[in-house]
């Protein structure tokens, strides 16, 4: 199969267009012919080697963490899917590979794609949708009437998280540039802060939840906008000891994780708030919940640009500029 392959880590390296063996289909696996793949900053971070200690891939590896396509074949123990089904998924972290013509995915990580969406729209959802779900619904247990601060509201996670939080019934604050104010307003944001003009720390107070996706300085400020007992959930770090256990990191790395997050956890304790690091995991059941919200018209995907498969490196480079509104997608077929 044709694929975009990472041969060695390095931020100046591009992924190589080449040929890889078709994936193995185990008894609980579903072989999917890929029609579209979402592009995420996670792909760039893996390429650059930022996760090589906690996600030690055996190179060469095919990149890509979001997929939509059609079932070609199923393993002997698969019961929920059949050839011809239109599906989407975020593959397991140790079985990525959406920048290719085929991928083998565990049945439990797969869901039928929302019926109203194109393949390109569906491919934009799994990683950001599951991230928002696991942060706001699962970890924060966000409730009606609470206040949540979602950083970078016009980004991939932000555009989805704003809509999900509004569906729950929360008041949503977000940061964005002046060019994207209308977009986040349409998505439902109640308090919109132009990060180039205003400091969110001086505007927001008494928030129940912060979904943090920016830098360390924004993290420090975010701790101070929470009420006592509030929760800060970060998708940009630093990793905490619970994360090390969750991903099964070797014991030798766990003290490293503890040290990396020590100052942040100490600052959170000083402010009487909670801190946790979230690395989204694959989950087909949660994707089915998300499909229902999309097909009901409650959540709409936001896709900035669709690139042809041969322009996968250009798609990654465009996302890295930070100018994308919502998601960037690669059309495979």
How would you summarize this macromolecular structure in one to three sentences?
This protein is of the alpha/beta class and 333 residues long.
Word description of this protein:
With about 325 residues, this protein is of the alpha/beta class. The protein contains eleven helices and 16 strands. Strands 3, 5, 6, 7, 8, 15 and 16 form a seven-stranded mixed β-sheet that branches. Strands 11-10-9-12-13-14 form a six-stranded parallel β-sheet, with helices on both faces. The chain has a three-stranded antiparallel β-sheet with strand order 2-1-4, with no helix packed on it. Helix 3 crosses helix 4. The protein is globular, with a radius of gyration of 19 Å.
Number of DSSP E strands: 16
- Please report the number of helical segments: 11
User: Biggest β-sheet, characterized?
Assistant: 7 strands, mixed
Task: Give the overall average pLDDT.
Answer: 95
What is the percentage of strand-forming residues? 25-35%
- Distance linking N and C termini: 13 Å
Helix share bin: 25-40%
Any idea what the shape is? globular
Features:
single chain; 333 residues; alpha/beta; seven-stranded mixed β-sheet; six-stranded parallel β-sheet; 11 helices; 16 strands
Topology:
Blueprint: E1 2-6, E2 16-19, E3 29-39, H1 41-48, E4 61-62, E5 67-74, E6 86-89, E7 102-106, E8 110-112, H2 119-123, H3 126-139, E9 147-150, H4 156-168, E10 171-176, H5 181-187, E11 191-194, E12 207-212, H6 216-225, E13 226-234, H7 241-246, H8 254-260, H9 262-270, E14 274-277, H10 284-295, E15 303-308, H11 312-320, E16 327-331
Parallel strand pairs: 9-10, 9-12, 10-11, 12-13, 13-14, 15-16
Antiparallel strand pairs: 1-2, 1-4, 3-5, 3-7, 3-16, 5-6, 6-8
Helix pairs in contact: 3-4
């Amino acid at each position: 199969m044709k694929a975009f392959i990472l041969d060695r880590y390095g931020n100046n390296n591009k992924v190589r267009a080449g040929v890889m063996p078709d994936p193995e289909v185990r008894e609980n696996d579903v072989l999917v012919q890929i029609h579209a793949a979402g592009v995420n900053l996670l792909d760039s971070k893996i390429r650059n080697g930022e996760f090589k200690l906690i996600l030690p891939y055996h190179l060469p590896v095919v990149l890509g963490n979001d997929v939509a396509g059609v079932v070609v074949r199923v393993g002997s123990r698969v019961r929920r899917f059949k050839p011809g089904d239109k599906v989407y998924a975020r593959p397991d972290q140790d079985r990525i590979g959406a920048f290719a013509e085929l991928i083998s995915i565990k049945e439990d990580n797969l869901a039928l794609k929302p019926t109203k969406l194109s393949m390109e729209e569906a491919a934009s959802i799994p990683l950001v949708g599951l991230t928002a779900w696991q942060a706001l619904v699962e970890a924060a247990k966000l409730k009606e009437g609470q206040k949540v601060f979602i950083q970078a509201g016009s980004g991939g996670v932000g555009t989805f998280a704003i809509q999900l939080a509004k569906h729950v019934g929360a008041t949503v604050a977000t940061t964005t540039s002046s060019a994207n104010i209308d977009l986040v307003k349409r998505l439902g944001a109640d308090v919109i802060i132009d990060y180039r003009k205003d400091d969110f720390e001086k505007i927001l107070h008494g928030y129940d939840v912060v979904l943090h996706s920016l830098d360390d300085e924004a993290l420090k400020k975010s701790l101070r906008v929470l009420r006592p007992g509030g929760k800060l959930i970060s998708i940009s770090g630093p990793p905490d000891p619970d994360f090390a256990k969750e991903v099964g990191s070797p014991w030798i790395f766990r003290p490293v994780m503890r040290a990396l997050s020590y100052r942040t956890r100490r600052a959170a304790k000083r402010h009487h708030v909670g801190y946790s690091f979230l690395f989204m995991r694959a989950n087909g059941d949660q994707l089915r919940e998300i499909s229902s919200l999309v097909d009901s018209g409650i959540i709409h995907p936001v896709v900035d640009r669709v690139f042809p498969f041969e322009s996968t490196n250009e798609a990654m480079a465009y996302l890295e500029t930070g100018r994308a509104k919502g998601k960037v997608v690669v059309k495979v077929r």
